[in-house]
Amino acid sequence: MRHLAALLLLGLSSSCFMSRSTTNEPLQRAKLEQLHPGTSTAKDVVELLGAPNEVIQLGTRSAYRYDFTNLKRAGFTVILFTALNEDLRADRAWLFFDAKEVLTHMGSTYEAAKTEYALPWEETHGK
Amino acid sequence: MASRLVILAALACSGCITGSYTRSQSYEPVAHAQLATLEPGKATLADALASLGAPLFVWEWMGDGAALAWGWGDEAGWGLSLSVPVGDNSATVFAFDTKALDLPGAVLFFDADGLLLEAREGKLSDIRAETIRRRPAPPPEESP
């Protein structure tokens, strides 16, 4: 009877949870591929991608940041103890312009889709 | 004994005291071998972007130069927390940028022509604090 009560208490006191938080809209690789260093301008970029998330001044030049972040949390609570894992990854694109606002360089990273729900002892990065 | 169990059950059910184990994994790590291929004086901004992808942060460096920072993290730790309500409302907000700057990582410094001049590894916030160019505040507007 005691064991049954203990199991019942454990069952009632435990919970699992998962949550997902995103920031901004996902980057579209096809749109970024339409931009070409040396010919595309800041105006072209804004018309295609919309307003950047950040603009950085680099002397007479500038750089625009576009990003989409994906955070997944998973864990469980048993009575007084909680185990939690957070996995955060992002799609990012940085576009660099010269003083005449012509695109000179661009770099992009797409890793947001690899975000995983996992428990703290599971390896999700660098698999 | 029974009273102790009651107190423990009350604390457990209310969630005021909790122990925890939390792991936080952030962004894909950049391999040290990838960084080593970017040689100061030879590698360019285009080489770095092609090899490492988009950085997390960019800031102005030495006038027309640029600092590009890649960061990643994998931290885990045990914790014990006590929750006590102290007001009608509370909110916990972590600014993404501030949190990401606390990560370790690598920073590459380029001149105005996009040539890599220096590479450093360490906590991004420390490197940024040492190297970012602070712009002076604009002069106050003259009153008529």
Provide a short characterization of the protein structure:
The complex is a heterodimer of chains A (127) and B (144). Chain A has 127 residues and is α+β, with helices and mostly antiparallel strands.
Salient structural properties:
heterodimer; A: 127 residues; alpha+beta; 5 strands; B: 144 residues; two-stranded antiparallel ribbon; elongated
Description:
The complex is a heterodimer of chains A (127) and B (144). Chain A is of the alpha+beta class. Chain A is built from 3 helices and 5 strands, in the order H-E-H-H-E-E-E-E. Chain A has helices at residues 2-13, 29-32, 42-49; strands spanning 14-23, 54-58, 61-78, 81-97, 103-110. In chain A, strands 1, 2, 3, 4 and 5 form a 5-stranded antiparallel sheet that branches. The longest helix of chain A has 12 residues, at 2-13. The N and C termini of chain A lie far apart (46 Å). The mean pLDDT of chain A is 91. Chain B is built from 5 helices and 6 strands; from the N terminus they run αβααβββαββα. Chain B has a 4-stranded antiparallel sheet with strand order 2-3-5-6, sandwiched between helices. Chain B is elongated and about 75 Å long. Chains A and B meet through strand 2, strand 3, strand 4 and strand 5 of A and helix 1, strand 1, helix 3, strand 2 and strand 3 of B.
List the helices and strands and how they pair.
The complex is a heterodimer of chains A (127) and B (144).
Chain A: H1 2-13, E1 14-23, H2 29-32, H3 42-49, E2 54-58, E3 61-78, E4 81-97, E5 103-110
Antiparallel strand pairs in A: 1-3, 2-3, 3-4, 4-5
Chain B: H1 2-14, E1 17-26, H2 32-36, H3 45-52, E2 57-61, E3 65-71, E4 73-82, H4 96-101, E5 104-110, E6 116-123, H5 124-131
Antiparallel strand pairs in B: 1-4, 2-3, 3-5, 5-6
